[in-house]
Amino acid sequence: MARPLKGAVPSPNIWQHTTTYEVENRAVDPDGRLWSALQSLADWSGRTVLDLGCGTGFHLPLFAQGPRAAREVVGVEPHPDLLALARRRAARLGPAVRCLPGTAQDVPLPDRSVDVVHARWAYFFGPGCEPGLAELGRVVRRGGTALVIDNDGSRSTFGAWFRRGYPHLPSPAEVERFWVTRGWTRTPVDMGWRFGSRADLEAVVRIELPPAVAEEALRHHDGVEVDYAVNVWSRTF
To answer: Would you say 54 and 89 are in contact if contact means Cβ atoms under 8 Å apart?
Structure first.
């Protein structure tokens, strides 16, 4: 495995289990609630979108295609192996989509060059993300919008699993205080997971939670769906 860029925070799910994370991406937001929330908070049609921490580029087509297609989409990713997969995906989308190596705190784009930023599980729960937020202030044009999607550990089945699995992380109240005091607005969304099989659900739970917590969760949860709450933190610059 190639070495990630300096300053990148390890992401044990997608970095270590890329194929299973692709299954997770396909299961996220089956009813389109999260996507609708993003569209209500920012208009990227004909504009420049930065997908920050784009991973394998799963979301690049969602911004680059369709009636609200962006004029330009730039994916930035610190992990070379994931970046290679994102570039392969981008190559099928045409010259308006490109992927670059970079981190949240060192975005390889000029000042005031981006209209909309999409960062999905790339800011790691608030505190500690200050350098990345400062970098947003540099690259986003005036009037542009940043959208940061993060877990809401205060509610939902997955939120309860998450709190049990990662008790050392900042509390939901601490995370909310972090964003609100910096001028960001919270939009809660009940999105959910819906998998094609029980095996897919179990595989994803096992990459998202520590082993003991994952096995306990699976023993007490039937079916192929999980209610899952997130927050979209947004700010207009």
So the answer is: no
Strand segments, DSSP code E, in 25-111 are: 48-52, 72-77, 97-101
Question: Can you read off the two tokens belonging to residue 213?
Answer: 């917590």
Tens-digit pLDDT profile for the chain (237 aa)? 578 788 787 788 899 999 999 999 999 999 999 999 999 999 999 999 999 999 999 999 999 999 999 999 999 999 999 999 999 999 999 999 999 999 999 999 999 999 999 999 876 668 889 999 999 999 999 999 999 999 999 999 999 999 999 999 999 999 999 999 999 999 999 999 999 999 999 999 999 999 999 999 999 999 999 999 999 999 999
Of the candidates 155, 132, 177, the one whose C-alpha atom is nearest the C-alpha of residue 226 is 155
Measured on CA atoms in the order 132, 140, 73, 181, is the torsion positive or negative?
positive
- Give the whole-angstrom CA distance, residue 192 versus residue 28: 6
Residue 157 identity (one-letter amino acid): T
CB 20 within 8 A of CB 175: no
Contacts of residue 177, defined as CB under 8 A and 6 or more positions apart, other chains included, come to none
Q: Please, which residues have CB within 8 angstroms of residue 121's CB and are 6 or more apart in sequence? A: 11, 53, 149, 150, 151
**What are the DSSP E strand ranges found in 138-217?**
140-151, 185-190, 193-194
Report the predicted TM-score, pTM, of the whole model to 2 decimal places: 0.95
